[in-house]
Amino acid sequence: MSDKKVIFSGVKPSGDLTLGNYLGAIKNWVDLQDEYDCYYCVVDMHAITVHQEPKDLRKRTLEILAQYIAAGIDPEKNTMFIQSHVSAHAELTWVLNSMSYMGQLNRMTQFKEKSKDNADNLNAGLFTYPVLMASDILLYQADLVPVGDDQKQHLELARDLAERFNNRYSPTFVVPEIYTSKVGSRIMGLQDPTSKMSKSGDNENDYILLIDSPKATEKKIKRAVTDSLNKVRYSDDQPGIKNLITIYSKMTGESVESIEAKYEGVGYGKFKSDVAEVVNEGLQPIRDEFERLMNNKDYLEDVYMNGANAAERVARKTLRKVYKKVGFIPRKFK
Ligand code: TYM
Fold it and tell me: What is the distance between the alpha carbons of residues 187 and 148, in angstroms, rounded to a whole number?
């Protein structure tokens, strides 16, 4: 057993990865992989809380795994797997559902938003979605969960459930901490810089996909909504420019101050084309590696098979403890 602290995180395969997913979460995972014992999951069970075409879901699940690897997450160092392959996630969810209060789940902003968008498919899975997410995290005794800032409330719920269980029975779960980056924990839409960049948006100019072509990426950034102040400044009064500075900073590692200084007196046209250049430079190796991996399905199968085996062992151990503590008679085997 390693004495490294544990990380768990995941992405829903309900659409292709956006620059928001990459900069808000996955890029941080890459940076954290040496220091922590990491579990990176493709959360297909979360995805079915909104309608999915089965064929597309299968395809996207594999693509997202390939994109994790292409982005620099090393399958040799990390446990990478598909959520539905480890049945303990569903099983712990049932126990935690029985300890989750309707009132608290009702207050989840993401549930409220999703309810509006899915009025014709307002299912119980959408409601208990954050409980499944808590199970993901708690099964692996994760210390840290690197996510974008939109997941804060869900993380709070996971912490509450861990504490509630520990208090009601006895210490069982590690209470996880959230990890968000100071800059870039919420990448905004290019067309509407007052709301987060999202793959579920209808306007394709609002988001950049990791697998967009360099040309499409450049076009979207050039069309990004800005303002008429013509100053490259990191200010709440200029949400469009602030977002582009954030993107530039996350892609290059350059500080916000140094970007502001570099573009002092420079027009938006030049700034935007430089943002497009750094984004394309950073994404191109990922796109190339993604292509290569998708032509190597045997390798991807190996990764998720080994990942599920390793994850299963850890998850089962936690679930066994939980079942025992709540009073289930341990199953006997002949
Ligand atoms: P999902 O699939 O919506 O997003 C995956 C990750 O990307 C982050 N993210 C963003 N970060 C910055 N700016 C944005 N515009 C942006 N859009 C998305 C999200 O915060 C997230 O980190 N419920 C989760 C998936 C999940 C999970 C988990 C995460 C299921 N179980 C356990 C962590 C731990 C979700 O829907 O993420």
Answer: 9
Q: How far is Cα 203 from Cα 190, in angstroms, rounded to an integer?
A: 10
The model's pLDDT over 229-271, given as tens digits with 9 standing for 90+, comes to 999 999 999 999 999 999 999 999 999 999 999 999 999 999 9
> For tokens 């800005």, what's the residue?
226
| Each residue's pLDDT tens digit, 201-211 | 679 999 999 99
Ligand 1 atom having least distance to the Cα of 129? 23
* Cβ–Cβ < 8 Å for 140, 8: yes
* Euclidean distance between CA atoms 251 and 211, whole angstroms: 16
Instruction: Output the six-digit token pair for 233.
Output: 């400044």
To the query of whether residue 332 is one of the catalytic residues in this protein, the response is no
pLDDT digits (tens, 9 = 90+) for 38-82: 999 999 999 999 999 999 999 999 999 999 999 999 999 999 999
15 Cβ closer than 6 Å to some ligand 1 atom: no
CA pair distance 279, 282, nearest whole angstrom: 5
List domains and CATH numbers for the chain: 6-184+297-326 (3.40.50.620), 204-292 (1.10.240.10)
Question: How many contiguous H segments (helices) and E segments (strands) does the chain have?
Answer: 14, 5
Please classify residue 55 by burial: count the beta carbons closer than 10 Å to its beta carbon, then call 0-12 exposed, 13-18 middle and 19+ buried: exposed
* Cα distance between residue 64 and residue 303, in whole Å: 13
Residue listed under structure tokens 């002092």: 264
Task: Give the C-alpha separation, 301 to 326, whole Å.
Answer: 36
Please give the pLDDT value at position 265: 95
Number of C-beta neighbours around residue 240 at 10 A:
19
Please state the atom number of ligand 1 nearest to the C-alpha of residue 14: 2
Is-above-0.85 flag for pTM? yes
Distance of alpha carbon 221 from alpha carbon 229, whole angstroms? 18
